Amino acid sequence: MIFYFSGTGNSAWVARQLASSLHEPLYEVVSALTDGAASLSIDAGTSVGFVFPVYSWGPPLPVLRLLASLRLSAAPSYLYFICTCGDDTGKTARVFSRAARRRGWQCKAGFSIILPNTYVCLPGFDVDGQELVRTKLAKAESRLSEVIAAVRARQEGFDCREGSLPWVKTYLIRPLFHRYLTSPRRFHVTEACVGCDQCARHCPFQNIRVEGRPRWGDRCTLCLSCYHHCPRKAIRYSVFTEGKGQYTFPRRSSPSLSSNG
């Protein structure tokens, strides 16, 4: 079985390809947390996979919450994860593995797949240009094939691109990010907003209500699905996203991408 979390579609694509190739059931992390699907019966030899984007050099908090609360009738014989990232993962593998050990489980493997950047909420961060998006998507296809083959063979070990200063990024920057930079209070809309409801429809946590204008609740994980799916580019996060691009995983062969540069 495979659990996945996705905001702009990168990890959803990986999870669906994986589930289709392995002929395994696929569950959304958010649904498992909110709809009581987190109690499942499995055989002793069942593999359990998690697919998620890297948020500030670690797993998204909803993924860690599900990992902590997931009730299975037996321990997974092969627990693994696949994380998607724009550049690097930091110590994501270590964070996930430690969370699994707290359950008495052992994470046997972890893999990273580079896909287009989606984070835009700080100075210096923006979506990738169109040429880089195409390059990353092309490379991701072959990388995903390798990862699926490794999972099918139940390969053990970690093949994640940690990048530079991974300890600093995960254990110093990440806690500050979660403490100060995940509040939905910084979201607002410009006069371009027409109340089309697309932001609410694409919010994984159903955290947005549109009453003329969107209103954000308190269940935000800063996945930025609302920002990237807004057809009018009307959603802003403080002053940091003005003039920046949007990205969602392409439904067909060409990416859904817009940018001002």
> Cα-atom Rg, whole angstroms?
18 Å
The span between the termini is 41 Å
User: Oligomerization state of this entry?
Assistant: single chain
Biggest sheet statistics: 6 strands, parallel
- Residue stretches low in confidence (pLDDT < 50, at least 5 long) are 253-261
CATH architecture grouping of the largest domain: 3-Layer(aba) Sandwich
The third-level CATH topology of the largest domain is Rossmann fold
Strand order of the largest sheet: 2-1-4-6-7-8
Please, how many domains? 2
Number of strands: 14
CATH class of the largest domain: Alpha Beta
Structural class: alpha/beta
Residue-averaged pLDDT:
93
Strand percentage: 15-25%
Helix amount: 25-40%
What is the H/E order? EHEHEEHEEHEHEHEHEEHEEE
Count of helices? 8
Query: How would the global form be characterised?
Result: globular
Q: What does the model show?
A:
With 261 residues, the chain is of the alpha/beta class. It folds into 2 domains: 2-165, Rossmann fold, CATH 3.40.50; 179-250, Alpha-Beta Plaits, CATH 3.30.70.20. The chain is 33% helix and 21% strand. The chain has helices spanning 10-22, 29-34, 61-69, 92-102, 130-152, 166-180, 198-202, 225-229; strands at residues 2-4, 26-28, 39-40, 47-53, 71-72, 78-85, 107-114, 157-159, 187-189, 208-211, 213-216, 235-237, 246-248, 256-258. The chain has a 6-stranded parallel β-sheet, sandwiched between helices. The longest helix has 23 residues, at 130-152. The protein is globular, with a radius of gyration of 18 Å. The termini are far apart. Mean pLDDT is 93; it is low at 253-261.
